[in-house]
Amino acid sequence: MPFEVIHFRGVEGILKKKKMHKEVNEILAYIESSLKERFYRGTILKQALDEMGWRDNGNLTILEGRRYQFKGLRNRIAIEANLSVYEWILEGLFRLQVGCDKGLVDAGILLLNGYRSDKSPLGEQVELVRSEVEALYPTISLPVSVVLLDLGAPQCVETGKEDKNVVNVVSKEKEVAHA
Which of 3, 58, 143, 167 could be bridged to 9 by S-S, CB 3.0 to 4.6 A? Predict the structure, then answer.
């Protein structure tokens, strides 16, 4: 599998007990294949989760009266994601922890873009995830899997300033204009 999954605090046992280990691997593979080198990843992610039944229950709300929602939820396993920046790990874990503390979820899955610049001084991605999640304990204590997806460099789509019919695709590696 091209994506990497790092498990914390007994999440594997919870997935096996709920008989969701295979289902989780299937949704992760489907998400990665759907999003690889695509634009509008947030919308495509929600469509993929909907197609695979992770948005069916309609109650994705984290806090009552607020618009905060999980990306997906099935059998008390929540999915959160940010496919642009790794630094969202803290907010994603926090959202999952709130759901766990409120009794909404038993475990969480956090999806992040596994792309790292070769110039990064912070070392290997998997080791960085391990050290950051462990450093957040006991504040973040829920059973969680962090998934690093192989999606390529994060991209931003913006309209051309001079010509409204031109869309500039900005990537960490290059800029390309599409008419």
Answer: 143
Closest CA to 106 of 140, 144, 62: 144
What is the C-alpha to C-alpha distance for residues 177 and 179, in angstroms, rounded to an integer? 7
What are the tens digits of pLDDT across the range 84-133? 888 889 999 999 999 999 999 999 999 998 877 667 677 788 999 999 99
Residue 119 CB partners (closer than 8 Å, separation 6+)? none
The SS3 of residue 70 is: coil
Which of 116, 126, 127 has the alpha carbon at shortest distance from 86?
A: 116
Pair of tokens at residue 132: 């950051």
Cβ atoms 130, 152 nearer than 8 A:
no
CA angle, corner 72, sides to 66 and 77, nearest 5?
Answer: 105
Distance CA 67, CA 71 (A): 12
CA gyration radius for the chain?
17
Query: For residues 151 and 113, is the Cβ–Cβ distance under 8 A?
Result: yes
Question: Can you read off the two tokens belonging to residue 105?
Answer: 């979820």
Prediction pTM value: 0.84
Q: Name the amino acid, one letter, at 145.
A: S
Q: 71: which DSSP letter?
A: S
